[in-house]
Structures are given as C-alpha cells and as structure tokens.
Amino acid sequence: LACSHHHCAFPVSRHELCVWNTATAQPLYLSGHRCSISALSFGSRISPLLVCSASHDHVIVWNLDECTQKVEEGFPPRGIVIGTLLGMVLHVRFSPDDQQVAVCTGNQIYMLSAKNEAILARLDGHLAPVTAAEFCTWEKSRLISVSEDRTFKARKFVWDYATNQLIYQSGIITAFPLLSLLTDEENKQIITGCAEGQLWIFSLISGHNYRCVAHIDLKKEQEKFCHKVWKSGKEIGEGQNNSKLCKTDNLRPEGSVETSLPILLIEHCDFFVCFHNEENTYSSQNTSYFWIGTSTGLLIINLANFELEAFLSYRDYSDLSIQIARSCALTRKAVNGKVLCLITSMFEDMIALVEVNLAALVTTQHRYFLPRGNEKSLSVFASVTVHTSFLSNHYFRVISHKCVVPFLCKLNYFPTGEKNTVKDKPLVFHNKIKSSGYTAAPRMTMFSPNTNLKRKEVSKWKISCKCKNKEYPLESYPPIKYEKEISVTCKPTPIFCVQYSGDGELLACGQADKTVLIFNSNLTDVHNVFSGHDGAVNSVGWSHDRKWLVSASEDRTLRVWSVCNKEPALILGKEKFRKTVRFAQFYFIDTFILLCCGAEFNLLSFHLDTTKDDLKRYKPRSVCKLVQKFPMTSAMEITGLSAVNEFYSYIVLTAGSNRALEVFDLNAGCSTAVIQEAHVRSVHQICQNKGSSFSTQQTEAYNLFLTTAAGDGIKLWDLRTLR
C-alpha cells in the first residue's frame, strides 16, 4: 500500500496497479508487471508525481501526469523499467529529489536511477531481509535501513550510497524484528519500531554518534492513556470509565487477548493544521507528532514528552470490519482536517479506506470520552455499508497477490449493479491450484462452505475424492474388530499420537523413542522414519497438500518434515518456547502453524524452502515468525486444541486444565465464548469434522458439531448454541 497527498495506490490483481485520486474519485489502472506487486512508493515531489511499483520481475517508475494523459488519449499508459529480476522486493523508496530509488530485496539494497535502467550501487552488509529504508532529507547521500537478523532479528545500518561504504553499524537493538523506519528532518532523528510494540529514537546530529534519544513502550503508554481516561471518568461520574478505550492489561475484560502490537507504519502527523479553527491547542507549536500504525489501531505520539496523544482502535467502530491489520498506509498531509488511511486485513481478503477527523478524535479523547457507536471522527468505506464512492463501483473485483510470508492477502471489493465475473486463478504462488470459490466475496459465517459450484466442478471433485479418499459407509456398523497388528519397534515403546493424512494413504505415529514413523494406510510398509527430537513426540500433523508433517516434542522443539526427505525443513528450538510444545498442526490451508505452549496457543506464519546453497549449505532457508499469542481464560495449561485446515475457518477450539472449553475467533482476534465446567475432569481431546468445504448439506450440518473427551466421558456439542 502507498498514500500521497491526493492519491492512494494498491494492487488490484497479480500484476495490475490501481492509483485512486481522492480529489476526483477516479481510478487509474497501470499494467506492466508479470509477477505480483510486492512494494509501492510515491515520489517526494508533487509535480510531477511519480509512483514506483516493484515485483519479482520488474521495478517500474510511473509518471502519473503522463499516464493520465495517455489514458485520456486512448493509449495504454507506460512506465519506465528501472530494474529487472532483482528478486523479491520488500520495500522501495524515492530519494528527496526523485532522481534515485532505493530497492530493498533480500539482504541487499540496490540504488537505481529513476530515469533509466541503471544500477548506481549495491549495498551489502545485512545478514537478513531488509524491511525498510529511508533517505535523510537533509543529507541526500545518506540512506538508513533496518533489517531482521536471524536469532537477534534486527540490525540497523547507515550507508553513504555515493561511495558505497558502510559508515555506521548499530548494535543489537531488540530481540524482535525491526519492521518500520522514519526520518525526522526537524530534529535530525530517526524513529524505528519493532514487532513487539517498541519504539527507538536515535539522533543523527553530528557528534552524537547515533546515540539513543528515547525508548518508548507503546503498550505501557497505551495503558497510561487508558488509565487516565478511566480515572477522569470515575471522578466525573458519567460512566466514561466503561469506554472501550479503557481495555488495559489490568482492566481487560474476560475473553479478550493480548496482542504483540507490531509497528507496521511510522508517519508524520499534520497535527496543528487540523486545529487551525480551535481557540486552544493541546501542546506547543514546536512539538512534533507522529502516527504509529499497528495491527490493532492507530496511535499519535508526542515527541516532546514521548506520550500518547490519541488512540484509535479498529475494533471500536462497528462499520469497520477489519479488526487486525496486516499492513497500512497513511497520507502525510491532512486534507480539510482529515487523514486517509488504507488498511488490509490479516485474515480476510479485504481492504478498507478509513477517513479520520484528527481534530474530532483528539478533542473527544482529551475530554476523556470516546463515543461508542458514534463514528463522527471516522468514516469507513468497507464491506458493511456501501457508500456512493469509488470503492462501491464495479471496477473492483476479487484478486490475489503473492507475499514474502504466505499470508492470505487478497483485496476484496463489493460491486453494485451488474454481476462481476472473474476467472478462477491460482492462489498459491506458481502452483496451478484453483481458488476453490475465492472468486466470490468471502464467507463471513463460520463453517459455511461454498456450495455455489458448477455441476461439472462438483462432479470432478467427487470423482477425485472417490479415487483418493477411503470413505467409511454410513450404513455400516462401527468397527469393533481389528484386522492387523504390527510391532513398530523391537522393544515395547509407547505411541503417543497417530494421524492419518487427508487422503487416507499415510499414517504418522509419534513415539516415546523420539522418532516419527510414517506407514502406508494398510500398515504393510514403513514409508519413512524421522529422527532428531530429544524427547518423546507428543503430536504430529499433516499439511493440506500431504507434503509436509509437523511434529512437537517434550524437548520443547517443533520440527516440520518433508515427506520425501529425512532432514527437517524447519526447526524451532528451545529458546522459542518456555514450556513443552503440544498440539502442533497446520492451519488456514497451510498458511499458519498452531501450537500450544502452557496456557496459550501461538499462531505462527512460515515459509518452507528445502533447497540448499553449496556455499551456505548450513544456513537454513525456511523461516517462521510469531503472529500472535492467544491465552486461555483462567487456565494453567491447554489440554486440547482443534482447528480446521482443510478449508478456511477462523474458529480455534481449546480446552484447559480448568475444565473449560473456549472458542476463539482469529478473524476478530479474541475469545468469543467460554464454556465453564464443560466436563467434570479436564478435556484431553477435541474432535470436529474436518471435511472439505465442498460438502453437501448433510456434511455442512456435521461441521456445526464437535466432540470432547475427558475422564468422565464423551460429549457432543452444538456450535450454534454451545450446548
């Protein structure tokens, strides 16, 4: 995403870029990429206004004035290709004079000319992917970048790209990846944020040696701000203390979760311009303010006292259907006292345009009152209410694009008028896999499979299932006699877990002797043996494509194995988990990994790569990152977990040592229901129908039920009533 003074840019297909003029409400479509667009940036100057789009195949600079003129004349707009086959681009940024473009790809930064295809310099030194880069506007030749770095996850480098030399390298700032960066020309400082809600400010003044000026913990500042609102409401006695704003850790209501608060964006805030009609301003005119975009909301930071000035939470507004954001972009300058913000959802294939009235937001919160259900300071163009705007027109369609980490990342637009027809396209990188109904609007109802399929598609799917899956006849009696018994080891060894693959062809067994065995379904042959754990294997789980197997062990490690290779593709060591890892499984059609650790379960994003470089053969290529932790309510340990991986589902079911059953909605990012005293004893197994979303009405009804097993018996639950 990218925003400028009057323009917003975002991909609308795998290789097409849409630039929307907020003043005229007119879209401009730019085509030139063959691969998915992964990075966008507007130029520093207003005239001519440039925008740079980058993908795996090309880096293109577009002159919007020339492109608009070409469209008016009836010709297709064309851009200037300045880079070819540079790799996966994570970030692009124009120089202050728009003459150069910094392109961050992998652990390198390419300095490209903005006028022709020429590499001016290549900056090496990072040991991990570069996540952001910014030019110093007061010193053109200086570029600052932040990056991830293996265990420590972050290093920061400052380059003089004119001489292509490293002039400064910082020490380790934090254990979490640095995600965002901003240069403050007024104070000659840089501000960087990490994935755990921490901000660092460093001075770039000559002689300061890049010393740290301030360290801000956004979680604590948010708690202080909410406590101030709560305390003032209590003194006034008007009930403001019940505001949704006052959800601190100490006051957090039952059923909510604590997020990691990754800092996705840092942008200048046009604070005082929005108060030109106000008699009293809230701070000195010399104070700088900055927007902080996180996964849960927008914050305004005052650099004079490093405190929170205002806070906008996505979930406090009913019209905004996105509650957890994956990325966001803001306009630097306010127009008529309002700021535009683009947000993409973490789980849904949706983008929302948010208009924030900055003066109204700050005024209401400085009076320690946040209106509930009153969006005067926020107008949203999203899925709930379709306004007469560009986002409601038929120009938009369901599209998808590729990311570095394979999140579900599709924009969703809701057409009005005539029906929009979109061809079924691949979703998963270069694999030719149909999107299985994702050419339509996403299903907001849990466990509601897509049944709107053509008869030919349904018949083909049924034939393929009959060939692969071994269905148990419903008319038959349950199995009460065993047909075969084999010994898996020479000496007696407990088997802690078993799991069939989705097609029923393979069976995985986790054993106490630290190994994982894979058998054919008829138990006639051992397909593979995986060894490497230092403790008993307590859980195994198959991927949706049957190519990968995840295993968790008592040694507090998690491993992902390729069925065709005995070496693990991914290893998460003891340093990641404080307690034993249990109930590991793939989730959201192999997009995430779920696992339990103590009283919380973790949602991990991952990328698997089994290829090896002869020069770096011992350096793993697979990566895994923590997205969020979800603690159970009043439980010492999670004793059971279940989630569907065969189709897209937001529901995660957990059982705790407190004998409770809890339902989490990961789309909303919170606990939706808690069943206290579900059993007399702790639940040790949760079972739900994990069939395909293409099922019939009979199987769809089965999706509404789940079974729990404990020491006192087995219970069948209805998800609609939780009884």
TrEMBL record:
Under InterPro entries, the record lists: Quinoprotein_ADH-like_sf (IPR011047), WD40/YVTN_repeat-like_dom_sf (IPR015943), WD40_rpt (IPR001680), WDR27 (IPR042411)
| Keywords of this entry | WD repeat
By its UniProt entry, which SUPFAM superfamilies does this protein fall under? Quinoprotein alcohol dehydrogenase-like
Q: Supply the Gene3D superfamilies for this chain.
A: YVTN repeat-like/Quinoprotein amine dehydrogenase
WD repeat boundaries? 530-563
Q: What is this protein called?
A: WDR27 protein
Provide the species name: Cisticola juncidis
What are the leading ranks of the lineage? Eukaryota, Metazoa, Chordata, Craniata, Vertebrata
